Amino acid sequence: MTVVSGGETVAGVETRRWGTLPDGQHVQLFVLRAPNGLSVTLGEYGARLLRVQMPDRDGVPGDLLLGHPDLTAYLEQQDALYFGATVGRVANRTARGRFELGEQQYQLAINNPPNHLHGGPGGFHAVRWEGAALDGDEGLNGVTFHYHSPDGEEGYPGAVDVTARYTLGGNGWLSLDCRVSTDAPTPLNLTNHAYWNLADGGASSVLDHTLLPSATQFLAVDDTAIPDTVTEVQGTPFDFRAGKPLRQDLDADNAQLRGAGGYDHHFVLLNGGRGLKQAAVLSDPASGRRMEVWTTENGVQLYSGNFLSGSVVGWNGARYGKHAALCLETQQAPDAVNQPELDRLGAASIIVQPGQPYHTRTRWHFSVME
Questions:
Q1: Cβ contact 156:106 at 8 Å
Q2: Catalytic (active-site) positions
Q3: What does the pLDDT look like over 305-363, one tens digit per residue?
Q4: Residue of 122, 127, 131 whose CA lies nearest to 165
Q5: Which residues touch 65 (CB under 8 Å, ≥6 apart)?
Q6: Are 131 and 142 in contact (CB under 8 A)?
Q7: How far apart are CA 63 and CA 75, in angstroms?
Q8: Could you give the residue ranges of the DSSP H alpha helices within the chain?
Q9: What is the mean pLDDT of residues 243-252?
Q10: Helix or strand or coil: residue 163?
Q11: Predicted structure pTM score
């Protein structure tokens, strides 16, 4: 059930009741606003981005993100499962849902046959996180979400405590910091699964957006979408080095594109270290909106909305059909837990030990081109 009702404002953050989960838990949403007209709505279910709005070059506000006002849409509609969610414990695909740690083999749910996807059907996207507005002492406008994942949840070892903190700056920055502690060795690879359309929030296609990732290599995949080769982008439809519209090579005669129905591939960033670096720039020539994506991770998964079916009618009645948005999921390599050569692409293994800090940061910078 969804009941969006009036709430209160704390430290510049508006809090409202969003709805109730089937188990009776009440779910809140939070609204952040910046002086430049940028506004961000967040929800406790999935610690997710629900809505991002900002003016275009003519000063007309509009949506930039696929989402839904109804909590029930995220519970019941397959297309909406990951919209804007914090995804984990391990984002993307794990081959056959299996991995070994020490001398023990673990079997995870096969929810993207024949593989495990995005932490399983009951992963971080499908639980309520406890949210609270920042108290304002740090001079930040934001929300912190907390979730405790018990040992064995979705088949993963160890109990973990996770925080996802969103902060909004007056200069057009939106930051997400995820921190995790664990009491046993466990794989961790968190991301945010926002679906972006800078033109109109998904009412039309994203294919005329221009994309420039900071990458010269991508991971080619097998017929089950598991990476098998680190490949140079040069001479392939995956060459975005000069920036190009998404549609330019989308229908090229290429086995990788045919197999995925479009782009659904991990781009290896030029600077794979753990420092913050630019992952991609996305721009919409029609509206003038521009978004930079920055990350501490070694790569970014580009997904061109290949399987959006039009089943979800979201903000302002927009029907989200095929290629209505794209995802730029900052993360470590898919299936890194099973492929040491991919795990080594990052500055650290995705296996996190007790006492070892885990911190991933994604920053989005929104602006308007002349």
A1: yes
A2: 193, 329
A3: 999 999 999 999 999 999 999 999 999 999 999 999 998 887 679 999 999 999 999 99
A4: 131
A5: 49, 50, 51, 52, 84, 194, 195, 196, 197, 201, 202, 325
A6: no
A7: 22
A8: 71-76, 255-260, 340-343
A9: 98
A10: strand
A11: 0.95
